[in-house]
Amino acid sequence: MGQLENKAALVTGASTGIGLAIARRFAAEGATVYLTGRRKSELDSAVEHVGPRAVGIQGDVSRIEDLDRLFAEITERSGRLDIVVANAGVGDFGLLGEITEEAYERTTAINLKGTVFTVQKALPLLPAGASVILLSSSAAQRGVPGLGVYAATKAAIRSLARTWAAELAGRDIRVNALTPGPVVTPGGDEIRAAIPTGHQAGEPAAPTPLGRLGHSDEVAATAVYLAGDQSSFTTGAELLVDGGATQL
Question: Three-state SS for 240?
């Protein structure tokens, strides 16, 4: 018996990186896992990688019609959701004087709007004991030049975890923030590559006090803890998986 046996889980942004690692671990622990992503070819590959417990539903979390279609299919197939992981997110490098309206709209629509309405539309499917996990970022605590809009959305997500934990406590639904630090993922690598060398001044020589970047599976292990019964008395919290980057 796995830790998530007979549970139904949704992981957004699950085509690659942390989302895919979480989906894979959830399936290995016995859950039926719904994966979403914007790009069909990557999503199909992720579903094949996760295995027979995976169901892929293509969609963009910033589009309400896509969310409606997603939850209609989950309702038809499972009738409930025991775990929601709001992971879908994007980020662009842009100093204050360089931020474009297009980049702002894209980042806030996917990271913040997508998180809000993913969880809102999941509410009718969440039973007592359900777990909601919101993906924040250590960038929200570090003040990295050029990541202002991205970091602001991730700080807002941490705040939402507190508010929603209070709102849903009466239904015995837990809400927590999971906050990775620098992790090897396609998206993270792209953001780090976009930061000009001159704007990395003041950063430590090593990416974290542990002397390395993190791995998606290390974040996924913490997601399993938050999703399962071992964290039954944990809500409104922020769990940092950052190699000590924000604390040491």
Answer: strand
* pTM of the complete model: 0.94
Nearest to 124 by CA among 67, 198, 56, 179: 67
What sign for the dihedral angle of Cα 201, 93, 221, 213? negative
Domain that holds residue 188: 8-239
Q: How many domains does the chain have?
A: 1
**Annotated catalytic residue 225:** no
Asked, for residue 1, whether it belongs to a domain, the answer is no
Residue 3, in any domain of the structure: no
Whether 244 is covered by a domain: the verdict is no
**How buried is 97 (Cβ within 10 angstroms: 0-12 exposed, 13-18 middle, 19+ buried)?**
exposed
- Asked if residue 138 belongs to a domain, the reply is yes
The CATH number for 199's domain is 3.40.50.720
Say which of 34, 104, 150, 225 is annotated catalytic.
Answer: 150
Residue 62 contacts by C-beta under 8 Å, 6 or more apart in sequence? Answer: 109, 110, 113, 114
Give yes or no for a contact between 152 and 103, defined as CB atoms under 8 angstroms apart.
no
Q: What is the pLDDT of residues 28-81, one digit of tens each?
A: 999 999 999 999 999 999 999 999 999 999 999 999 999 999 999 999 999 999
Q: Which uninterrupted H or E stretch holds 168? A: helix 148-168
